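User: I'm curious whether this sequence folds into something compact or stays loose and floppy. Could you predict its structure so I can see for myself?
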Amino acid sequence: MTITCLISLMGNASVGPESGLGAACAGMSIIYAKGVNSICRRIESWTVSNNNSSSGIDEVVDEDEENGTTNETNTNKQEIEDNEKIRSKLIVLSGMTAAFSAILPTPATAILLCIELPGFEALSKKHGLSYMKTLAQLTVSGTLSFWIFDRWYGNTYLPSVPNIPGYIPKFESYDTPLAAGIGLMGSILALSYLLIAGIVKVCTSKAKTILDNKLNSKLRIVIISTIGGTLFGTLGYIFPLTLGDGSYQLGTIFGTAGSNISTSVLIASSFAKMLTYWISEETGMVGGLFYPMLLIGSMCGRVIVNEFGTSWATTLACSLVALPAAICPGPLTLMMLGISTFNLSSRGGIPVLVCTVTAHVLFVGLGIPQKLMSKAPKKTQ
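Assistant: Here's the prediction. I'll summarize afterward.
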């Protein structure tokens, strides 16, 4: 999965890097967890044998005592197995945090992401992970990964906007209502995003069925992938902002060059990006959906700044996360992402939080994606 994601990204497919990177770190974490559990098992066995030998007592036990010893041994084995499962899950979650910390502006965003998306109630009740133990472990893995990547790469993968000395964004009284409006925009974009997904899925599903009836499945895969590459390559030539995962284009949208891009180009590119992502996804390319969604919202936010002259930092911070906020249940994660990308103050986080909650309530809260997904056709393998 990691190799195919890298190939897709090198081919400028409209997918994000997080899918391949997360798969790589999760796989290595599983291998690492097996090694750690093996070492811990040897230490526990050595400790138990030492405790037994140190007693120095050889007694003849009756049947009841033997049964009690057997039950106690079984209980200890079950406890050891449960501890190993919890340890493995914690290591894998830490690996995912380490992966995402390398591509986000701050490890705090990656930590919140890995806690909020599965839901901490599920982490604690279903997987047995305590809050502080989990948070402490994720902090170690996340900050270490971020430090290594920052030292090697010299910057974060997702471009963050540095503060100009002496510059502090001036927050206006209309910032909170503006954020709620951008949240509404995010829910509308999410609806368009899933409608385009449905159209592409139906078209590719029918094409796969027709080709399967006339050709073998291997040849069908080659033909569909070739058609997909031709389509998103052609659209990428017409709309350069749609090429790749979007991290490079985000720097242009955020900067002064973004003010020189016409509204029609930005709006057309945002919808073209939705189309190129789903074409890439349905025709064999491998990658994540998070980065493309960040670019789609940012292009629409740039339109608001260019047309209405609203606060640059607040508008783009909110629009950056408006689309993923409508779909993903991670308001604190996305608030942290908006704040860290634009280096906003504590007050600047208020509109971003309002935007994320508004977008999610108006989309998932109203049951829109649930109804759309129930009508979606099953994906042909």
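Summary: The radius of gyration is 25 Å. The chain has 15 helices and no strands.
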